[in-house]
Amino acid sequence: MLLFSHLHLSFQIPAKMLAVKRKRAHRLLILCVLLFLSCFGPVSSLDLCDECHCKSTTVTCLHKNLMSIPQPLPANITTLFLTGNNISHLNESSFPVRLEQLTELYLSGNQMEQVDRGVFNNLPNLHSLDLSNNRILSFSRDAIPENNKLRVLNLSQSLYNVSYTDISNLLKHSFPKLSNLDLSNNDLKLFPDGISSLSDLATLDMRNNSVVSINNVTFRSQVLQRLDLRDNALKDIPNGTLADLSQIPGLWMYLTDNPWYCDCKMKDMVIWLQKFDFVADKANMTCFEPSELRNAPLLQVDQTKLQCNYSGNMKGVMETSYVFLGMVLALIGVIFLLVLYLNRKGIKRWMYNIRDACRDHMEGYHYRYEINSDPRLANLSLNSDV
Question: Cβ atoms within 10 A of the Cβ of 197, count?
Fold first, then answer.
């Protein structure tokens, strides 16, 4: 019996040691898992916050010489500032994880040159996007999904070489709810067509461009509150556009520092400025041409001086008219000769017919003359019936 107890104890000791080893192995496994998660999970966010500045759900990385969007970003991030870095290219891998709560993104001053398609597909609730002060050469129309919620877009001084067609297609395709658009300082010469399709647009900043005309521009947004066209190359605004602008309630416009040409075409615009108060800075609008009216306040200029006088260029105009008239007459002459040549046989036949008809007619006159001149033939003619 004693021997059996001794054997039983000898078997229990290894079992206890095995249990201890299992516990140690389990603890070691848990420690490894925690270490792995620390290395590839929260520690990365902590490293991001060490390099940048994290406050609540806002991450700020200003002037950190970043070459790409830092990864990974916190899942609960709402605002991301990446101003003043070197992020020159945005592609689909820039935001590889869906960030449902990110609403504001600032990428100003990054020397950005290219924005590829699908870049912002994983930012479904983005409301504000700042891409100002960049050098964008290519901006894909599919960079932003069609069902986006973007309301504020800042492209000031960023469209370095984007074509008129590209920016028009981008605005037509991508921004159904856009209310604030900044296109200032981009050397644009024409209004992009896509602006007409922005039905919710409330603020449009086109300052310091080279817009020469706003002909055929239709502002469909009835909620437009601010239209800034200062420092452009406008000489006048056509009556149709003035009528469209008059139909938008609550609109404020800014039109100073344009080279307004004060001739007869400006009369309607002067009357419009005097009648409506849409233009906030109309008191500072001045004439640029002609030279005798330069710097004259537009509202105070005598309308009798708004004349269309072409005397200075009349000689050139007349010379051009004479040249044009000569070319037209020469063309008519060539066509006339060509018609005569093609119908030469018919014309010759027609002339022969006229000649024969004239000959027969003249012979009839000659015969009657001979009868009337001879009295004997005249009596014979009178008594011929008898």
Answer: 18
pLDDT, tens digit, for every residue of 114-154? 999 999 999 999 999 999 999 999 999 899 998 899 999 99
pLDDT tens-digit readout, 168-177: 888 888 888 9
Q: What letter does residue 159 receive in the DSSP assignment?
A: B
Beta bridge partners of 53: 60
> Which residues make Cβ contacts (< 8 Å) with residue 190, sequence separation at least 6?
164, 211, 212, 213
The amino acid at 184: S
Residue type, 85: N
- Amino acid letter, 345: K
Helix ranges (DSSP H) in 224-383? 239-246, 267-275, 314-342, 344-373, 375-382
State the pTM of this model: 0.69
pLDDT digits (tens, 9 = 90+) for 254-268: 999 999 999 988 999
- pLDDT classification of 43: cutoffs 50, 70, 90: very low
- Using CB atoms within 10 A of its CB, is residue 121 exposed (0-12), middle (13-18) or buried (19+)? middle
> Alpha-carbon distance 234 to 229, whole Å?
9
- For residue 122, what are the CA distances in angstroms to 69, 91, 99, 171? 14, 12, 6, 20
Residues across the chain: 386
Between the CA of residue 219 and those of 196, 248, 326, what are the distances in Å?
Answer: 5, 9, 45
Of 291, 180, 286, 292, which Cα lies nearest the Cα of 228?
A: 180
- E strands within the chain? 53-55, 58-60, 79-81, 89-90, 104-106, 114-115, 128-130, 138-139, 152-154, 180-182, 203-205, 226-228, 252-254, 260-261, 287-289
Strands 138-139 and 152-154: unpaired
Angle value at C-alpha 311, between 307 and 312, nearest 5 degrees:
110
Structure tokens at 340: 């005569």
Secondary structure (3-state) at 41? coil
Closest to 93 measured CA to CA, from 126, 75, 67: 67
Cα(170)–Cα(140) distance, rounded to whole angstroms? 7
